[in-house]
Design a protein that fits this description.
Elements: E1 3-6, E2 24-25, E3 33-35, E4 40-45, H1 60-63, E5 74-79, E6 87-97, E7 111-116, E8 134-141, E9 144-147, E10 155-156, E11 160-166, H2 170-185, H3 210-219, E12 221-222, E13 226-227, E14 230-231, E15 243-247, E16 255-261, E17 271-276, E18 279-288, H4 291-294, E19 302-304, E20 316-322, H5 335-351, H6 357-366, E21 370-375, E22 383-389
Parallel strand pairs: 1-4, 3-5
Antiparallel strand pairs: 2-12, 4-18, 5-16, 6-15, 6-18, 7-8, 7-17, 8-9, 9-10, 11-14, 11-16, 13-14, 15-19, 20-22, 21-22
Helix pairs in contact: 5-6
Pfam families: FmdA_AmdA
Protein name: Formamidase
InterPro entries: FmdA_AmdA, FormamaseFmdA
Amino acid sequence: MPELVFPLDSTKKFTEQEILGHNRWHYAIPPAVTVKPGDTFRVHCREWFDGAIVNDDSAEDILNAPLKTVHTLSGPFAVEGAQPGDLLIVDIVDVGPIPQEDSGPLAGQGWGYTGIFAKQNGGSFLTDQFPDAYKAVWDFQGHTATSRHIPHVSFTGMIHPGLMGTAPSKELLGKWNAREAALIATDPERVPPLALPPEPEHALLGSLTGDAFTAAAAEAARTAPPRENGGNQDIKNLTRGTRVFYPVFVDGANLSVGDLHFSQGDGEITFCGGIEMGGFIDLHVDLIKGGMETYGVSENAIFLPGGDVGPRYEKFLAFSGTSVTLDGEQRYLDSQLAYQRACLHAIDYLTKFGYSPEQAYLLLGAAPIEGRFSGVVDIPNSCATVYIPTSIFDFDVEPGKDGPVQIDPGIGAPRASA
């Protein structure tokens, strides 16, 4: 086993650990650990809400999820010799849940969860159709996930970090804050908001203290969106065997990682999506000196996704959508709208077998569905598609002359009371 450089005690909160992580992006956050090019090391990661979501049949915890506390990131990890303009090579050697036998009640120890966020608390990709909070708990048996809240389904997890990235420079952080503030100003009262501005409350900045902490907390960027440094990209294919080339903006690169998922559908469409869990990740790091200029990488990472692990599905049932609203309004090549319509198409279809719309939506967020922008040039309609592996169901999910099989939907997905 690689050296464990960032241990977490599962019986303690993230803020009570001997080694402190962070939940904001800022150039002044000191490295928690320094590693060398060529090192392989293990990191513990906490589930993104640090235990606020529990294994029960209620969704009140999803409704009241403390968004100002996320994401609980492990790091930063400084890499000796890394300088702005380099490319940081990060190999995902291994990743998995916290072993079941370890102490503590936190998600990742044999179970994880998927949640639909209430519109008032951030919403989701389909928040207008699903404005309330719902939850599904998933049990892990080896590499397989099943749920009492969405029965008749099991699938192999493609375990991956939802969030990994390098620290921004002072200049890059300023660019983020300026452009996101300008977006918010176009509709400041929107629910859910257009973006999340810096928020000092509940900010965690590693070992930073005093006036330096106060100054950094006032401008540190929230970790919710992906940006030029990588960040919360939620790419399900970044599993074991993946190599990532991250741009370096500060001395040491200051790599951070977290938001582990046992599985996820393309798009993480429920927002509290995938199957959230705590766990471990083994990383190998190296450098390409001056790599950003050499390879024309001014921003944003390049990936070699892991191709030799994870589920292998051969048969899919695919659903399409176009850029026309539910009210019949034509939009011009709106690929996001087309993907929403494809997802709603799939949800409507699955309800014919006995699932509730919420169960079907949670399934699309958790199972390894494939989402594709299939046509983006044929004016005025873009076309997006959602591919669902047929073998994840224990019944025949294909259309047939005898009509859809009627399954027992079980206890259903818990819904929050408000």
